[in-house]
Amino acid sequence: MTIEQAAAQLERSAEMIRVFAEGVDPADAVKQPAPDKWSIVEVVGHLLLEEQQDFRPRMELIIYRPGLDFPPLDVDAAVKAARLNKQEMELVLRLFMQERATSLRWLRSLDDEVLERYHEHPEFGRLSCGDLLHAWVAHDLLHLRQLLRLQHGLVQAASAPYGIGYAGAW
Description:
By secondary structure, the protein is mainly alpha-helical. The protein has one domain: Four Helix Bundle (Hemerythrin (Met), subunit A). It is built from seven helices and two strands. Strand 1 and strand 2 form a beta hairpin. It is elongated, with a radius of gyration of 18 Å.
C-alpha cells in the first residue's frame, strides 16, 4: 500500500467514524457496555489521542529525529485522564476530524521512500514507518468494529419489549 492509498483509507475510515458517532444521543454516547469497556465518546476520544500522541508523532520521530526513543504511551490511562465521558460527543468528534485532516495533509506531503525508515523499538523490534502506517489503517478498522458493536448494543437495549433476533445472529 502506498502512502496515498493508506491516506485514502484513513480518510474513508474517518468518515465512517464520523457517521457512527455523529448525532448519537448524549446519554447514549457515554454509555459503557461494561465498567471496563469504552463508550462511544471514549472510542472517538481515544482515536483523537492516537492522532495527537501515537501514529503521526511516532512517524515524525522516525523521519525527522531518528534515534530518539518514542515517548511512553499508556492508552487506557490517557483515555481515563482525558475524562472523555465528561466531554461533549460533538466536540470530541470535531477535534478528531480536525486532527485527522492534519494527519492526512502531512501524510500526503511524504514520499513513499519514508516507509522504509525505521526505529528500533524495545518491544516490537524494527518498526518502520510502513509498519506504523499500515497499523494506523488497521487500528481505525478495529475501532470501527468497536463502534459498530456499541451501536448494535444501543439498538438492542432500545428495542425492548421487542426483539431483534429476526435481524440475524450477531
